[in-house]
Write a structure and sequence with these properties.
The chain has 381 residues and is an alpha/beta fold. Helices cover 41% and strands 9% of the residues. The strands form 2 sheets. A 6-stranded parallel β-sheet has the order 1-7-8-4-3-2, with helices on both faces.
Length: 381
């Protein structure tokens, strides 16, 4: 029997004389460390050997959930505009924020509240934004220039912009990464495919995170794409793509830390598909009971990411019931202070609507702005 020095040689020999042959093979890897009960199913990565390191991340996950509950309550009582809950997606959102460096650039959709909180965005500012006040997205870290972009509501429009940011970072030879976060529905948009292609061609420092929460409003994942995974969409662009259990904080942190590290070192772009589930309506303007079953929702509650981390911490001796009570009391106080600041903020002047349209307002619009300003002044008298 002939001996071959490598698999490729063996394959060529086996296919000799055939009209067609295999020229490329691909695979998509899936990563999970904790099961739904917080039990390890694989050897934990080094950072997670000390369970205490997970406590600050767990705090942010609980804060994200409590903030969501308060925001929905404010909307239901007419004190906030339409709000998109991230219930059930806390591990993915917090994992993204925890792995990013301060100087990295976040370009996210409207459901990454947890990521923004980790990145230092004030709760009162997030409430201002969803209350219709653009000043809520004018945030920056104290004493530092702003790095992150405002929330992107149009689907996948942040993907081409992330490519532009990453291109600038590469030209400047800065060890920074653009992190683009979008939903499973966004991965069906042309903006996403075009961004992937450009990122692959130019080998840019950008990481695309597809938060696959099962639903694009009322459209289920299985009718959005015939692809076996959404991560494999990276393959056509010559980019690495992989899946991660988006409800497993340790797995999300591990996968994204590797992806961001690779991009930061000049290794090029990466696509991560985080498998999670949206346990709330699409927004407070939606009623998911019209398109998904109660049984489906209940089956997903067993995979709750917050409970999964809590059980793991308790089992590891890093968290107790008194710790949980103190945490809830502390976060409740912070939330109430943020709500107080939000409700106590004076409404923006009507003419401020012109402030976010152009870098320099065209002369044709100046009379309209001045007219609004004059009417506002007259009302104050």
């Amino acid at each position: 029997m002939p001996k071959f020095t490598d698999i490729a040689s063996a394959r060529r020999a086996a296919e000799h004389g055939k009209a067609s042959r295999s020229v490329a093979r691909f695979e998509v890897r899936f990563t999970r460390y904790l099961d739904q009960d917080g039990q390890p199913v694989a050897e934990l990565p080094a950072f997670a050997h000390d369970a205490a390191r997970l406590v600050p991340m767990y705090r942010h996950m609980v804060l994200t959930r409590m903030f969501d509950e308060r925001a929905v309550a404010l909307q239901r009582t007419g004190q906030l505009g339409t709000y998109p809950s991230s219930l059930g997606q806390e591990a993915t959102a917090v994992g993204i924020g925890e792995t990013m460096a301060r100087d990295d650039v976040l370009l996210c959709s409207y459901r990454e509240t947890g990521t923004m909180l980790v990145r230092g965005v004030r709760m009162s500012d997030i409430l201002l934004y969803w209350g219709g006040d653009e000043r809520g997205m004018a945030y920056a870290h104290p004493g530092e220039p702003r790095q992150d972009f405002p929330i992107f509501v149009p689907i996948a429009s942040q993907a081409p912009q992330a490519v532009g940011v990453a291109y600038a970072l590469k030209l400047r030879r800065e060890p920074r990464v653009a992190v683009c976060v979008l939903g499973d529905g966004g991965s069906s948009k042309g903006d996403f495919y075009e961004a992937l292609n450009a990122a692959g061609v130019w080998q840019l420092p950008v990481v695309f995170v597809i938060v696959n929460n099962g639903w694009a409003i009322s459209v289920p994942r299985e009718t959005q794409s015939h692809a076996q995974t959404l991560a494999q969409k990276a393959i056509a662009a010559g980019i690495d793509g992989e899946q991660v259990d988006g409800n497993d904080l340790i797995a999300v942190y591990d996968v994204l830390e590797r992806a961001l590290g690779k991009a930061r070192r000049g290794g090029g772009p990466h696509v991560v598909e985080a498998l999670t589930y949206r346990m709330h309506d699409h927004t407070t303007a939606d009623d998911s009971r019209r398109y998904r079953s109660v049984e489906e929702l209940e089956s997903q509650r067993a995979l709750d990411p917050v409970e999964r981390v809590r059980k793991h911490l308790v089992r590891a001796g890093a968290w107790t019931e008194p710790d949980e009570q103190r945490l809830e009391a502390d976060l409740s106080a912070q939330l109430e202070q943020a709500v107080k600041e939000y409700l106590g903020t004076d409404a923006p002047a009507p003419e401020s609507m012109f402030d976010h349209l152009f870098a320099q307002l065209p002369s044709a619009l100046e009379p309209q702005r001045d007219e609004l300003a004059a009417e506002g002044d007259a009302c104050k008298k």
